[in-house]
Amino acid sequence: MLRTSLTLLAASAIVTALPQAVPATSTSSAPVFEIDGAKQYFAGTNTWWLSHILSDEDVDHALAEIAASDLKVTRVWGFGNTNNGVDQPVYFQYLDNTTMTITINEGANGIPRLDSVVRSAEKHGVQLVLPMLNNWDDLGGINTYCNYFGCNKTTFWTDPGAQEAYKNYVSFIVQRYKDSPAIFSWQLANEPRCPNCSTSIITEWARDVSRLIKSLDPNTRVSLGDEGWLCGGEDYAYSCIEGIDFEANLNIPTLDYGTVHMYYDQWGYTSDWGNKWITDHAALAKKHGKPIVMEEYDVKSTVSNQTEILQQWHHTILDTDIAYDSFWQFATDLTDRDPYDDYAIYYGTEFYDRVVIPHSKAMLAKTI
Ligand SMILES: *[C@@H]1O[C@H](CO)[C@@H](O)[C@H](O)[C@H]1NC(C)=O
Ligand SMILES: *[C@@H]1O[C@H](CO)[C@@H](O)[C@H](O)[C@H]1NC(C)=O
Ligand SMILES: *[C@@H]1O[C@H](CO)[C@@H](O)[C@H](O)[C@H]1NC(C)=O
Ligand SMILES: *[C@@H]1O[C@H](CO)[C@@H](O)[C@H](O)[C@H]1NC(C)=O
């Protein structure tokens, strides 16, 4: 209670000090999502692979385990591109750069895989965040558009041919699933970056694409999927060197919330720094009147105090205005692949029960 009233005081002080318009929500509590018919805090996870595995049974048991863990949302790759039709076991779009044709893969290793995820998510009451482009090369990212259109990772954002193809794909996906209650958010991309570019390039791109999506489906949330890079400081994550201005993007009317990723180890920071990264973003929820999500974070299983770090971050998340958080990543036994990576947390393990489950319960129990 004390914390809440202090925060309210601080917010009204800002309103008095600044003559420009501040969103009405800035004086009330920070915005949270309405999900399952109620405004609430919650936890979620990431399972990029759910749409890239071939077994319906695997999709179904993974989503059943996610639901049983009280994880409300999972983030699944809504993209999968190929240029040659053979380098990906599952792909949704084929940008054939020899015949120069672009097709949607309606075969068994194509869109039916995504259909299976959406159906199963509906059945288990889990909601999906679907990014529709990868900044990285994995599973066919910007590189597959550029192998076709001759762009690069800087010019992609404004290349007319690449943008038309990307928007056609986005329109296809949005129109196919827009009536499903299982879509939490359409997401423009996974970790868009334009290193050393003016941040206006990606801001204008995000404005344009999010407006297109809202015109096709005004009822579903839209998010950017960026890592939350801030501007105005000298320090790497605060220098907008990756071409992303988190606050400018948060002000785009057709983006409904802000996404933040956190890989302190890959970015040259300490795990303690993570608490500042969470707190600094959480403070922007009230300022801009939009929910903020810690969308990807985890500690490698090789780090000796992995448990303590995760628990400390979870405390920080619970203590601040983060609307939901989703760790990277949930893993389980599958028949045709192992979703292992350095950050995977396997369902049913002692570690999962000690770190994931208490946090998802604590988020649900947090009062608005
Ligand atoms: C076509 O795509 C392949 C990847 O499958 C790439 O190696 C090749 O360079 C591309 N061709 C052109 C002309 O860009
Ligand atoms: C992409 O191409 C442009 C124009 O040809 C060039 O200025 C830029 O440096 C290239 N960027 C990358 C990342 O290669
Ligand atoms: C960005 O610019 C800096 C300084 O000019 C340079 O060191 C760095 O390599 C550039 N990064 C990219 C990805 O082009
Ligand atoms: C984890 O270990 C690192 C390195 O020894 C230390 O800097 C950090 O404070 C520890 N964090 C926690 C929460 O124990």
From TrEMBL:
From the Swiss-Prot or TrEMBL record, what is one GO molecular function term? mannan endo-1,4-beta-mannosidase activity
Known catalysed reaction(s)? Random hydrolysis of (1->4)-beta-D-mannosidic linkages in mannans, galactomannans and glucomannans
Q: Which residues form the Glycoside hydrolase family domain?
A: 154-301
Keyword entries, A-Z = Glycosidase, Hydrolase, Signal
Top EC class for this record: hydrolase
Family stated for the protein in its record: Belongs to the glycosyl hydrolase 5 (cellulase A) family.
- Protein name per the record: mannan endo-1,4-beta-mannosidase
- What is the native source organism of this protein? Lithohypha guttulata
